[in-house]
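Q: Please design a sequence for this.
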């Protein structure tokens, strides 16, 4: 059992596993949900993941930050990552931005929503990531976010309208699309 271990120990165990870090329940369970007890270590590891463009570290840091508890302390790092093309973690970053409700991500969300490549290359006809961008802008709920939502509506994309209709004010960041 890894309880009481440093984030470095948990990460070392993570590296021995295969697959999606969000599915590493046994490893992530060692991080108390919402406890923010590993935040400083996660932020340091996230800085090295960005500097080294290390996808495994990035995936681990994102999964660990969701488990440990997201707050605005992650905003600077996530801002560096949201439009970076060296990784494919945009969906998870959009989910994080939705929870952070930080207005400075508005243009990045618009960029992702408007450009399937390189950000949404795995989106199918339902455009789930586009819908997540719409939900994130709606959750940010500022004048700027509203103006960008109007721009998205003006594209005539029916998935934008559908996302706005399906938006849940009580749980704006819910994973309603299963992705």
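A: Design:
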């Amino acid at each position: 059992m890894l309880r009481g271990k440093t984030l470095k120990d948990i990460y070392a165990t993570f590296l021995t596993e295969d697959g999606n870090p969000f599915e590493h329940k046994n490893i992530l369970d060692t991080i108390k949900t919402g406890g923010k007890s590993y935040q400083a270590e996660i932020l340091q590891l996230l800085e090295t993941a960005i500097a080294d463009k290390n996808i495994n570290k990035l995936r681990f840091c994102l999964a660990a930050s969701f488990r440990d508890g997201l707050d605005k302390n992650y905003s600077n790092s996530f801002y560096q990552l949201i439009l970076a093309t060296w990784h494919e973690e945009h969906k998870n970053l959009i989910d994080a931005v939705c929870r952070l409700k930080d207005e400075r991500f508005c243009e990045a969300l618009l960029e992702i929503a408007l450009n399937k490549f390189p950000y949404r290359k795995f989106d199918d006809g339902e455009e789930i990531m586009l819908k997540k961008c719409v939900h994130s802008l709606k959750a940010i709920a500022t004048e700027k976010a509203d103006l960008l939502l109007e721009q998205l509506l003006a594209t005539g994309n029916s998935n934008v309208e559908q996302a706005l209709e399906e938006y849940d004010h009580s749980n704006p960041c819910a994973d309603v699309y299963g992705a």
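Q: Thanks. Anything notable?
A: Residues 42 and 61 are 6 Å apart (CA to CA). The first helix runs from residue 7 to 15.
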